[in-house]
Amino acid sequence: MMANPSILLVDDEQAITSNLAPFLERAGFEVIVAADGRAALDQVDQVDPALIVLDILMPRIDGRAVLRHLRQQDDWTPVILLTQIGESTERAMALEEGADDYLNKPFDPHELVARIRAVLRRARPGRPPLTSAQRLLCGKLTMNRTSRRAYLEGKELGLTPKAVALLEYMMTHPDELLSRDRLLDAVWGWDYPTGTRTVDTRIAELRRALGDDPDNPRYIETVHGEGYRFVGEVEGTGE
Amino acid sequence: MSRRTKPYPTRNLWLWLLALLPTLLGLFTAGVIALGQLENHRIYMAGRLIFVAPLLGVLLTGLLGSILLIHWRAERHVERAIARHRRVAAEERRRFLQRLDHELKNPLTAIRTGLANLAWLPSDETRQATLDSVDAQALRLSRLASDLRKLAELEVRPLETAPVDVGELLQEVMAAAQERPDGDQRHLGLTIPQAPWPLPTVEGDQDLLFLAVHNLVDNALKFSAPGDTVEIRAFEDGARLVIEVADTGPGIPEREAPHVWDELYRGQGARGVPGSGLGLTLVQAITERHGGQVGLRSRSGQGTVFTLRLPV
Question: Is residue B15 helix, strand or coil?
């Protein structure tokens, strides 16, 4: 049996770490806690964690600086950022700097566990995450993230900007159950009861453009009553 | 906090003195000429200048003085407007903090009471019920925090705009309203003009505009009773496209009407009706991001019309 994956939990707020650490342990992880960025970098050297849960706002060295430092050292330990910064551009920058995922505070601890498992599942040891790849490939589908264009068999798909953003989010989170609320939050920036229709409309647009059959999907699977899942195998290039 | 500034005339004393200069120059010229005339009687033309120079000087002083006066009044007007605006902003902030305090107080009190009870609750069953209620209150606080964050984000994040067919959009809103359980208990109506020409398109973010109109319809359904009428209509008014959502509900009291757009504001009639107090704030934020304005007309006991005016 494999040892429990070790998680480095970095947050200066003791109220968070003292409750979250036992929760993650019960979920089957070994947890090491660091109270700031400096301590986090020391721990990374010493224990080589399987994943780092990293708060952004911290004294001395903040989460983004820790992330940048790791990636500059060519250290691709998966990182989930905990953010409370309202700006969506901040989160986009964090992903560009090499985070594997982010979660807004306040969050449901069960959601964090689900994200940790998903990131660990798709992590490719020693290689950059899909979230920081410039191009995403899945069979005949290519997504150029710099130009925000998607191609099927080399032919550009005429997609609305929201559909491109949705496809991009799904392709960077393959094989993960994505609830409509989560998609709304990540792609649209808001989630309200009526929003689920909005997601369904864009998913329908993507399926039409990709020629994907919902009953026998190559790309987007409907998980009834729960949301969607990108089922294709995704490769990232041009990090 | 207000910073007192010097009154305008004192601040610009040298300008006022400068305005007096033409008069002084005129008098000086007249004086010089008068002295010259006394010495040499042949300078006849200069005789008229004795009167003309001071007159010109006084006129010029009058002109400069008037310009300064107009400028002074304009500046005073702007200063007063800024002060008024600051007062209103401070008042709004104070009211927002009061409402936030209220929104935080109730769930926090419930959480603390629930936790205090946990220690002595007799059975697992009652303990579980208490834990569930504490969890629900914590969730309520989380939702409040994330709703406020999203609202703040909406005000700054770039809009992805494209031509939006408002008729189609309103039909979608209508379809969503009809699907609601309370939707078929109201007389729902949709009016979209086709003649002499169809509605123009609006440059906007379709999803956000849908959300704005849907929120208005959602409110109309929530605050009206079975048998009431809810109408959605749109028309062109000059360079604007107007969307109206009208209901025959209880109406909004006059004193509450100006505040319904404020964050977390809940009117008397909204007590006991589920909601975050952020729905209309969101409608306003979306409309203003599109360069439009929101408005409402209401009569107590007769109903309310909410209006979105969007540039075409």
Answer: helix
Which value does ipTM take for this structure? 0.75
For chain A, which domains are there? 6-122 (3.40.50.2300), 134-237 (1.10.10.10)
Smallest CA–CA distance, residue B153 to chain A, in Å, is: 6
Q: How far is B279 from chain A (nearest CA, A)?
A: 10
Give residue-wise pLDDT tens across range A200-236: 989 999 999 999 999 999 999 999 989 999 999 999 8
User: CB–CB of A194 and B146 under 8 A?
Assistant: no
- Computed over every residue of chain B, the mean pLDDT equals 87
Three-class secondary structure assignment of B45-95: HHHHHHHHHHHHHHHHHHHHHHHHHHHHHHHHHHHHHHHHHHHHHHHHHHH
CB-based contact B153 A162, cutoff 8 Å: no
**Integer Cα distance of A149 and B234 in angstroms:** 35
Query: If you compute the radius of gyration of chain B from its CA atoms, what whole number of angstroms results?
Result: 33
User: What are the pLDDT digits (tens) for B113-145?
Assistant: 899 888 888 888 888 989 999 999 999 898 888
- Per-residue pLDDT, averaged over B194-200, amounts to 90
Which residues, in sequence order, are bridge partners of residue B236?
B241
Q: What percent of chain B has pLDDT over 90?
A: 44
Q: Which of A88, A191, A197 sits opposite B157 (nearest CB)?
A: A88
Phi-psi region of B174 (alpha: psi -120 to 50; beta: other; left: phi over 0): alpha
